Amino acid sequence: MAEVAKDLLYTKDHEWIKVDGDVYEIGLADYAQDSLGDIVYVELPDVDDEIDAEESVASVESVKAASEVYTPFACTIVEANEELDDEPGNINKAPYESWIAKVKFEDFDESKLMTADEYEKFLGEL
């Protein structure tokens, strides 16, 4: 079973969201990185990019697949994790420490996300 960090919120697309005041971190959940396999490249967003809800924030490529990282809400990019340019495999090693982007959401609605317990149940149904 995939590891699920208890202090984060999750989407059905297997992104995690960390709340830090009015800035939020977005990353790939353990289930997603495990499904992708060894990650070899991350296409990061640009700071100040404005992204619509349910649109791609970043692209992640592994040796066997490519995947998009989506934002659940419209947002503006505050920071991109440039460490992933040189070390994309950090997402495999520590998915809950390797955020992809820090964003400001326009209309954050926690009720549209899953708690860790809800996400674990969701994973159990896959």
Q: What is the CATH architecture term?
A: Beta Barrel
Number of strands: 9
- Helical run tally: 4
Q: What spatial form do the alpha-carbon principal axes imply?
A: globular
How far is it from the N-terminal to the C-terminal residue, by CA?
A: 11 Å
Helix content: 10-25%
Average pLDDT figure:
97
CATH class label: Mainly Beta
Oligomer: single chain
Structural class: alpha+beta
Strand order of the largest sheet: 1-2-3-9-8-5
Would you identify the regions where 5 or more consecutive residues have pLDDT less than 50? none
Structure write-up:
- By secondary structure, the protein is of the alpha+beta class.
- The chain has a single domain (9-108), classed as RNA polymerase II/Efflux pump adaptor protein, barrel-sandwich hybrid domain (OB fold (Dihydrolipoamide Acetyltransferase, E2P), Beta Barrel).
- The protein has helices at 30-36, 83-86, 90-93, 116-124; strands at residues 9-10, 15-20, 23-28, 39-43, 50-51, 56-62, 66-70, 75-80, 101-105.
- The chain has a six-stranded antiparallel β-sheet with strand order 1-2-3-9-8-5.
- Strand 1 (9-10) and strand 2 form a beta hairpin.
- The longest helix has 9 residues, at 116-124.
